[in-house]
Design a protein that fits this description.
Blueprint (H helix, E strand, L loop, with lengths): L2 H4 L5 H20 L1 H12 L12 H8 L3 H13 L14 H18 L9 H5 L3 H20 L15
Helix pairs in contact: 2-8, 3-8, 5-6
Length: 164
């Protein structure tokens, strides 16, 4: 079921906020952040999960949506850091399971060292909306920097910009 076609459109302040978030995503996209995130996630999870072939927001969102690749990513990072892996469901048959995977990823990322303010809500990913998806990209961008501080290979190649 396509969420975009069943959801009522935003109006008023909600619409303005959504538009601003989409503009912020566009700015990050122009800076290459989603591409850096995809390249890093693909490199870290190589051999454990199919690669995300495209770098447009819908392709990335769809690739990450069930939380499986996110959990595989954080488990590789946790293992390299000598910490216990998180549990997750590899076969996602319902939104509940996917959202649980995403929540487990966030818990694992915080255990790894990501500050809670850089995590995202499962709906930011599950609902496939461009504006909220920026939170997912920002979270993975920040996780890449935490991994760099721990000298994880492959290195995250994203750039730190003013205000981050």
């Amino acid at each position: 079921m396509n969420v975009e076609k069943t959801r009522a459109g935003k109006t008023g302040l909600g619409y303005q906020v959504e538009q601003k978030m989409e503009q912020n995503y566009d700015r990050e996209e122009a800076a290459g952040t989603p591409t850096h995130v995809v390249n890093w996630v693909n490199a870290v999870t190589e051999g454990e999960h199919d690669k995300c072939a495209e770098c447009d927001w819908k392709s990335i969102c769809t690739h990450l949506r069930d939380g499986v690749v996110l959990c595989k990513l954080v488990n590789k990072l946790l293992k390299a850091d000598g910490k216990s892996p998180i549990t997750f469901q590899k076969k996602v048959m319902s939104p509940f399971v996917a959202m649980t995977n995403i929540e487990n990823f966030n818990k694992g990322a915080m255990t790894y060292g990501l500050a809670e303010e850089f995590t995202f809500q499962s709906g930011d990913l599950w609902e496939v909306r461009k504006g909220p998806f920026l939170n997912v990209i920002n979270g993975l961008h920040s996780l890449g920097f935490v991994a760099n501080q721990k000298n994880v290979q492959p290195t995250y190649k994203g750039e730190l910009k003013k205000g981050e």
